[in-house]
C-alpha cells in the first residue's frame, strides 16, 4: 500500500491515499528544540527555587542561598530568552497547524510565552532592586541600581508575583494541555515536532 501523503485544502489535516490521518512530518530544528526545553526546564527551576526559599527559615543562610539560586537561574532565563528571540526572528518556525482559529490562538499563546520569559525576569530584577537589595548572578553581585523605591516595588510585586504569576501558570497549563490534546486525542504528531 502506498504511504504517500497529500496535503488537502485544510492545513489542519494531512491524509494518505486511503483517507487516513497522517502525523505532520515537519519538525522544529535542533536549536529551536534545545532553546525550548532548556528554558522550560529553567522555568520549572524558578518555581522550585522560590518554593525552597519560602520553605527555609526566615533570616537563615539557606533562605539567602535559594534566593541567589532563583536570581541566577532567572537571569539565565532572561539571557537565553533574548538570544532565543533574536535567533527565532532570523529563523521562522514550521507553520502552526489547525483551523484558522486554533492557529491564531496557538500563535498568540506562543507570543505571550515569549513575552513572559522576557518580562518576568525583568520584573524580578526590579522587584529585587527596588527593595534595595543586590542581585546575584552565580556569585557575581550586581548592586541595586534603584535603591529603595516604593513605586517600582509596588509595580514589580504586581508583575512578579500574585495575579500575573498565576496567569503565567495558567498560560503554561493551557500550552501543555494543548500539546497533550494534540498528542493523545488528535494524534497528529504535534508534540513530535518539538521532541
Ligand atoms: C522567568 C523567570 C522567573 C520566574 C518564573 C520567577 C518566579 C517567581 C515566583 C513564583 C516568585 C514568588 C512570587 C510571590 O509569591 O510573590 C518570585 C519571587 C521573587 N523573584 Fe522571581 N522569578 C523569575 C526570575 C527572577 C529574577 C531574574 C529575579 C532577580 C534577579 C527574581 C527575583 C525574585 C525576588 C526578589 C522575589 C521575591 C522574594 C521574596 O519574597 O523575598 N526572579 N519569583
Ligand atoms: C515554561 C514552559 C514552556 C514555555 C515557556 C514554552 C514556550 C513555547 C513557545 C514560545 C513555543 C513556540 C516556539 C516557536 O514557534 O518559536 C512553544 C512550542 C511548543 N511547545 Fe512549549 N513551552 C513550555 C513548555 C512546554 C511543555 C511542558 C510541552 C509539552 C508537554 C511543550 C510543547 C510544545 C510544543 C509541542 C510546541 C510546538 C507547537 C506547534 O508545533 O505548533 N511546551 N513552546
From TrEMBL:
Localisation per UniProt entry: Cell membrane
One GO cellular component term: plasma membrane
The keyword Ligase belongs to this UniProt entry's keyword annotation: no
Residues in Cytochrome b561 bacterial/Ni-hydrogenase domain copies: 27-195
An example Gene Ontology molecular-function term: heme binding
Membrane topology according to the record: Multi-pass membrane protein
Family matches, as InterPro entries: Cyt_b561_bac/Ni-Hgenase, Cytochrome_b561_oxidase, Di-haem_cyt_TM
Gene3D superfamilies: Transmembrane di-heme cytochromes, Chain C
Key words, A-Z: Cell membrane, Electron transport, Heme, Iron, Membrane, Metal-binding, Transmembrane, Transmembrane helix, Transport
Pfam families: Ni_hydr_CYTB
Transmembrane segments: 34-52, 72-90, 111-142, 162-185
GO BP term (any one): respiratory electron transport chain
Cofactor(s) essential for the protein: heme b
Protein family (similarity comment): Belongs to the cytochrome b561 family.
PANTHER family associated with the record: CYTOCHROME B561, CYTOCHROME B561 HOMOLOG 2
Protein's recorded name: Cytochrome b
Amino acid at each position: 500500500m502506498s504511504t504517500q501523503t497529500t496535503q488537502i485544502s485544510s492545513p489542519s489535516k494531512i491524509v494518505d491515499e486511503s483517507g487516513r490521518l497522517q502525523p505532520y512530518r515537519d519538525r522544529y530544528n535542533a536549536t529551536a528544540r534545545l532553546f525550548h526545553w532548556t528554558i522550560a526546564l529553567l522555568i520549572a527551576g524558578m518555581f522550585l527555587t522560590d518554593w525552597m526559599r519560602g520553605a527555609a527559615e526566615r533570616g537563615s543562610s539557606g533562605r539567602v542561598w535559594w534566593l541567589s539560586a532563583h536570581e541566577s537561574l532567572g537571569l539565565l532565563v532572561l539571557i537565553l530568552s533574548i538570544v532565543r528571540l533574536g535567533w527565532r526572528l532570523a529563523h521562522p518556525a514550521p507553520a502552526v497547524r489547525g483551523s484558522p482559529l486554533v492557529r491564531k490562538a496557538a500563535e498568540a499563546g506562543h507570543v505571550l510565552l515569549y513575552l513572559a520569559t522576557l518580562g518576568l525576569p525583568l520584573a524580578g530584577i526590579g522587584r529585587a532592586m527596588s527593595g534595595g537589595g543586590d542581585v546575584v548572578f552565580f556569585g557575581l553581585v550586581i548592586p541595586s541600581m534603584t535603591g529603595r523605591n516604593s513605586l517600582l516595588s509596588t509595580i514589580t510585586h504586581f508583575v512578579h508575583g500574585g495575579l500575573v504569576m498565576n496567569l503565567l501558570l495558567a498560560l503554561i497549563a493551557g500550552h501543555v494541555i494543548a500539546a497533550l490534546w494534540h498528542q493523545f486525542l488528535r494524534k497528529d504528531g504535534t508534540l513530535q515536532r518539538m521532541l
